[in-house]
Amino acid sequence: RKGGYPHFMLKEIYEQPQVLRKLFSSGRREIKSLMCPRDIKQIVVVACGTAYHAGLVGKYVIESLARLPVWVDLSSEFRYRHPLVDRRTLVIAVSQSGETADTLAAVREAKKNGARIVSICNVVGSSLTRESDQIFYTLAGPEIGVASTKAYTAQLGVFYMLGLELALRRKKMTETSYRQAWKSLLRIPALQEEVLRSRSQIQRVASRHHHFGSFLFLGRNINYPSALEGALKLKEISYIPAEGYAAGEMKHGPIALIDEYRAVVCIAVQSKIYDKMISNIQEIRARSGRIIAIATKGDHHIRLHTPEVIYTPKTDEFLSPLLVALPLQILAYDIAVFRGCNVDQPRNLAKSVTVE
Length: 356
Ligand code: M6R
Prior knowledge:
By secondary structure, this protein is an alpha/beta fold. 45% of the residues lie in helices and 16% in strands.
C-alpha cells in the first residue's frame, strides 16, 4: 500500500503534483459555483494545525487578489470567543479529516450567528461536510501519514482557486490577468515535480543537520505561514524543538536564541522583500547561526551567505508556498528518518483529533 515507498509520508509527498493536477482540472469549473453572500463584508477561516497554516496562506491570497478582509482563527480559540460573525460573513472551515472536534464546534458556533459555511475538506461524507452549506473537496485521496502533506498543498490549491474566483467576481482582476494567473497555477504541478527530482540535495542537507538540538524557521509575507508549517512538520515527526517565526520579528525576541547550535531555515525565495530576508540572514550569520536557505533556482548570490541552499523553481511570488512546502516536508522527513523516528505514526499524535 506504500507503493514502494518506505513510508506513507514520503509516498504522499510525491503524490502532490498529481493531486494538484486533478484538483485544478475539476476545480476550475466547480469553483464558479461558490455560494457567497452578495453583500459579503468579511471571510473568517477556522482550522487547526496544518489546515490553519493553509488558512493563513489563504488570507494573503484572498486579501491581495480579491481585496476582501480575511481573519484566520484557530478553531479552539474561535469557538469560545463569542466571535464577530453574521450573515454577511463567509466562514471557511478547513480540515483534512472533517472530524476535528474543535473545527466542528467552531462551525456550529458560526452557524448560530447566521454565517454561511464553506468547507475545504478531504474526506467525503465526514462530519464537517454534513454541517456545511457548500464543500470544496481537496481530492487528495487518503492521507495515512499523521503529518499532513498532500492535504496541505491541496488546501492551498483550493484557496488559490477561491481567491481568483472572488477577485473576478469583485472586479479586482481583469479577465486577462485572471487567465494569466490560472496559467501560472496550472504550471505548478510540473514545478513541484522538479523539486521532487532534487530530493538528494535536500537529503544531503538533512544528513548534515539531523543532530541539531533546535531549529528556527523564518519566512516573510506569504511565506510566513510556510515557516510555521515547516516548523510544525519537523517537530511532530522528529521531536526536535522547532519554531516558526515571521522574519521581521527577529529583533523582537528570537534573535536572542541564535548561536552555533541553532539551525535556522530561511525562506528566501525571490520576492519584493527578498532584500529584507537577506538582512535577516546576515544578522543570523553574524551570530554564528547555521543557515539553511530555501531560494529560487538561479540565485547564486545567496551562496555568499550560506553554503546550505535548497533551490526551488521560479514562479510567481504569490504561488511560491505551493513549491516551498515540498522541501520543508522532505527536510523534516529525512531528518526524522536519520534520527530513527517513526515518521508515519509519531508518538502522542493521532491522525484526527476528535476530542477537544
Ligand atoms: O483533519 P484536520 O485537517 O482538521 O487536522 C488538523 C490538525 O490536527 C492536523 O493538521 C495536524 O496538525 C497534523 N498532524 C499536521 O501535520
